[in-house]
Design brief:
By secondary structure, the protein is an alpha/beta fold. It contains 14 helices and 17 strands.
Length: about 425
Amino acid sequence: MTQAVRAEPQADGADATLSDSFVALGRAARAAARAVALASTNAKNKALRAAAGEIRRQSNAILAANALDVADAKARGTAASFLDRLTLDPARVEAIARGLEEIADLPDPVGRVLASFDRPNGLKIERVSTPLGVIGVIYESRPNVTADAGALCLKAGNAAILRGGSESLRSSAAIHACLVAGLKGAGLPEAAISLVATADRAAVGAMLAGLDGNIDVIVPRGGKSLVARVQHEARVPVFAHLEGIVHVFVHRDADLDMAKRVLLNAKMRRTGICGAAETLLVDKACAATHLQPLVSMLIDSGCEVRGDAASQAADARVKPAREDDWRAEYLDAIIAARVVDGLAGAVDHIETYGSHHTDCIITRDATAAQRFMNEVDSAIVLHNASTQFADGGEFGFGAEIGIATGRMHARGPVGVEQLTSFKYRVYGDGQVRG
């Protein structure tokens, strides 16, 4: 069967019997998962490097497909921040290819002995890393996720079933074709990376139902509404990737020049990524010296600031913040700003309004920094560094499927190691239990 599956709409919605194409897709992925779980490191790496080469050869075709997706999105009046995530250019296509090669260069996470110990009765026990099985990835807008997710799953010995957003179907299909070419070149089953190439929302419902028991885990990567639907409807485990309500806290002992440099990068380098800062918190102990320069810098750089009374007093261009601004993931050149009562006030604000994604403190006080990093319960906490480092590639993971904000199994960037589980191997020489 073809691995770019176009499913027939389900007559009765998400609760209807799965269509034949979905059932076949799940079964093919399960069979492929058994094969790639036993595949050699060399075979997996060969597939990834071949796919990278194919992406470079097909760069013009990928860009042409993406141009059609972008044109449709513009015609629908799509927001600029969304268009930025959707749009590919030659540099971004090259980055996709390079990302596949970086994943190939990573150590194989499968078969690692995580722990070993001997029992008094002579049994030798090992805990060994194993693939998760079949991973369903549901994502929006970013066509590069097609390559990242497929490659990470393959490297970790899993099969992947990918369902990209309707707005990027052409781009995702063009990239997926390159991944399939890599699999074929390495002698691996094409169903190891499958693409559900349909805009029908029934596809999401079918995946959340588990494709007749053939999906082991779902990874959502997208907006709040997508993640909420996945968490509400999924009948299989989910690696939750909630919105990035990301904070930068400027502590009373922050160096102002450093604070300006880090904050500007955290907010404005790319406003549409989940690691972009969405709220600025300034310690009231340094507000007199730090607030105005920080707020004015952001506005002068093209960022709208919505702030509390103190922030509005610091710069007349600041717009009044509403309560929902403190919970906003703008993914745009907008930031909320507030003065807080010291480190405790910052932690309290983050705990009240944050999403446990990524948060940063800027300070020269190592004790304060350590307290912040201990008390803020986010997947990633930073000291004196831009929140835009919240990225699997920047962590040395090659790439990521997403930033998991839950507390079970995987947390933070989900790379190859996070896409494995483990089993126990027990060696004996005839022992029986008394």
